Each structure stands twice: as structure tokens, then as C-alpha cells.
Amino acid sequence: MHHNVPVGMVSALLLSIAVLTGCQSTVSEPGSMMKTAQSPPNPEAAARARTAMAAEYIKSGDLDAAQRSLAIALKTEPRLPEANNMMGVLLQQEGSEPNQIKAEEYFKKAIALKDDFAQARNNYGVFLSSRKRYAEAYTQFELAGSQLGYTERYAALENLGLTAEVLGKPAEAQQAFTQALQANRNSLVARFELAQIFLGQNRVQAARSLYDEYLQLLGGQQQSARSLWLGMRIAHQTQDIGRLQSLAERLQLSYPNSAEYQHYNELLKTGAAWD
Predict the structure, then answer these.
(1) CA distances (Å), 82 to each of 47, 102, 117, 144, in order?
(2) Cα separation of 126 and 275, whole Å?
(3) CA–CA–CA angle 72, 73, 76 (5° rounding)
(4) How many Å separate Cα 172 from the centre of its chain?
(5) CB crowding 43-70: b at 16 or more within 10 Å, else e
(6) Residues 96-108 as b or e (16 or more Cβ within 10 Å = b)
(7) Residue 10's CB: how many other CB atoms inside 10 A?
(8) CA angle, corner 74, sides to 22 and 92, nearest 5?
């Protein structure tokens, strides 16, 4: 496994629960789905609306309401790819082993019904990563990331890069993160991972520039131990002693039990080379 594999990679992977273009994101009038004298019943539109409602319920953490909404959608239109994908997301979020098994079935069905369904492929990739089936996940992220026009293509490319790191594919990881940054100039993940890759290639100034941009985008959010450690390594390489000491103090204060701080202490004690 590549030595720069992110700790907690699966939690960094981005799941997509937005409903595809053409579907409503919220539905405030369920009665509008019912037959009226002016408009004939439209089962597919009703199922899409229910799926959109489920997406909002999932975002708010109301999984039971999401399940009820999706059950109606799938009863109405069992072959609707978006509803199958959303049910997969829901069951994966719930987390129990029986529901994990069911989630995979729904993701597979969504893709079988719509081969170019990038959102479902990305979500299936996240699911596979959570099961440590990284080679299979890589394929799904690669397919999702190649879908031009997919609004969250950058997320699939970020996921592709993270998975490439796990699989020990540094060149593929660099390419994926570069593409993710092209697709979304505000990608925190791509900036951070490219900074780490460039530092490993001894492209220190490029790494520093990306890291500084990453911090600017991060704003007031707290840095992770991994982020502080990357900054310390860059500061060490650029001989910025003041910044190194400041970051080291923050690492000690915020993450005294972290692997990064323990490693830093070992370096101080032994005088070993930084990596």
C-alpha cells in the first residue's frame, strides 16, 4: 500500500445524494401528484418527486421518512434508476450488514437500468470502498469521472485519486487529482493531495503553493493532524522554522495522541530523516 494513503480514506470519499437534473429537489405539495381534471396521472414524475423528497430526508438524517418515500417511488416505478440509486444510498447510510447487502443490489440495479448513470457509479464506488473492495471501486470511479457533463464529476475524480493511492498507483492518483482540480477549482481534496504528491517528488515550491491555497480555502475550519503534518514537512523543507514550530505546537495541542505527533517526537529524539 502506498505510504501516503490518507488515514480514514473512506470517510473522505464523497457520496452523491443530489437528484439528477430534471428532478425536483424538494416537494411541498404531495397532493399535486394526484390526478386532476387538468393533468393525467404521471407515475414516473410522481416517483421522481418521491425520490427527490427522499434525498432531502437523507440530507437531514431522517432515514425512516426517506425509506417510506422511496418505497412508494419504487412501488410506482420499480425500474426508475434514480430511485434505485437513492435506496442504495439510504441503506448504506443506515449501516447494518443486512442493509449493506441490499444496498449493493440497488446500486447494481440502478447501473443496469442506466449504464451511463455517473452518480450511481460514484455512489457504488463509495460503497465498494467501504467494503475494502478498492479495485472494483476504482473501476466505478473511473467510469463516473469520465462522464463529461456530470455535475459532480470532480467528486468522482477525487474519489478515483484517493482509491489510486490505496492501490499504489501514484501516477494515476496525480492525474485524477489534477483533473478534479480542473473540474472544480475549489477542490480541497485535490489541492491537499497534490501538495502531498509534489512534496514527495521534491517539488517543494509547488507543494507549498498548493498547501497555502488549501489553507486559504479551508478558512476558519480546523486543520486535521494530517494537514498540520504536511505543513510541517513543507516548512522543514523550506527552512521556515517559525512556521514549523507554530504548526508543531498546534499539532501537540490539538492532536497529542495522533500518529503524526508521535512520529514528530520520534524524529526529534532520534534525529532521523523527515519523510
Answers:
(1) 9, 16, 9, 15
(2) 30
(3) 85
(4) 17
(5) eebbbbbbbbbbbbbbeeeebeebbebb
(6) eeeeeebbbebbe
(7) 17
(8) 90
pTM beyond cutoff 0.85: no
Task: Judge contact between 110 and 81, C-beta under 8 A.
Answer: yes
Distances (CA, A) of 19 to 22, 56, 183, 241, 273: 8, 9, 20, 49, 49
Query: pLDDT per position in the chain (275 positions), as tens?
Result: 334 444 445 446 776 765 443 332 333 333 334 444 455 568 889 999 999 989 998 888 899 999 999 999 999 999 999 999 999 999 999 989 999 999 999 999 999 999 999 999 999 999 999 999 999 999 999 999 999 999 999 999 999 999 999 999 999 999 999 999 999 999 999 999 999 999 999 999 999 999 999 999 998 899 999 999 999 999 999 999 999 999 999 999 999 999 999 999 888 888 766 66
| Residue 50 to residue 84: CA distance in whole angstroms | 12
Kindly state the cell numbers that stand for 188.
Answer: 480541497
The three cell numbers locating residue 162: 484517493
Q: In residues, how long is the chain?
A: 275
Please give the pLDDT value at position 220.
Answer: 83
Looking up cell 386532476 gives 36
Task: Name the nearest CA neighbour of 67 among 82, 77, 53, 80.
Answer: 53
**Torsion angle, CA of 265/271/272/274, rounded to 10 degrees?**
70
Which alpha helices (DSSP H) does 61-203 contain, by range?
63-76, 81-94, 97-113, 118-130, 134-145, 153-166, 170-183, 188-200
